[in-house]
Design a protein that fits this description.
- It contains 4 helices and no strands.
- The chain is mostly helical.
- Helix 1 packs parallel to helix 4, helix 2 packs across helix 3 and helix 2 packs antiparallel against helix 4.
- It is elongated, with a radius of gyration of 18 Å.
Length: 144
């Protein structure tokens, strides 16, 4: 991939759409799983700080990590496949740092993908915010 701006924008757009779809499906599945647990909670009166309540929260957090992990992996595979980074471990590290907007020097990244990396940071910020809103909403329901 060369330093072609339209191509970078196209690739970035496709990855944003793909990660938003992955995120939406992941949150829908988590929501359905937790809704079923919530129905059982009403029947059994699960308290938020009980073993069952804590198990639900841990399962939710693990599910969110899985969803974000898949999204990070998608970007990492692009960086690796394009030859922008030398190894899968480097690609995952770079992608996770970029996705989480912590940042990592892009000096080592192929310039042809720097715009894609910048978009990944914005995309990750939005998806992490979406997960935070989802988590806070579900925790609010559990505490009631």
């Amino acid at each position: 991939m060369t330093e072609n701006l339209p191509l970078q924008l196209l690739v970035s757009g496709v990855l944003v759409l793909a990660t938003v779809a992955i995120h939406a499906v992941g949150l829908i599945l988590l929501s359905r799983l937790l809704r079923r647990e919530a129905r059982e909670e009403v029947e059994r009166h699960i308290r938020p700080l009980s073993l069952e309540g804590v198990t639900m929260v841990v399962a939710l957090v693990a599910g969110l990590f899985l969803v974000h992990g898949l999204e990070i992996l998608l970007y990492a595979l692009l960086f690796l496949g394009a030859g922008a980074v030398p190894t899968l471990a480097d690609a995952i590290f770079f992608s996770a740092m970029t996705y989480g907007t912590v940042g990592y020097s892009d000096a080592l990244l192929d310039p042809a993908l720097r715009l894609v990396a910048a978009v990944e940071g914005i995309n990750g910020l939005l998806l992490i915010g979406w997960s935070t809103a989802f988590f806070v909403t579900l925790m609010g329901r559990l505490i009631r």
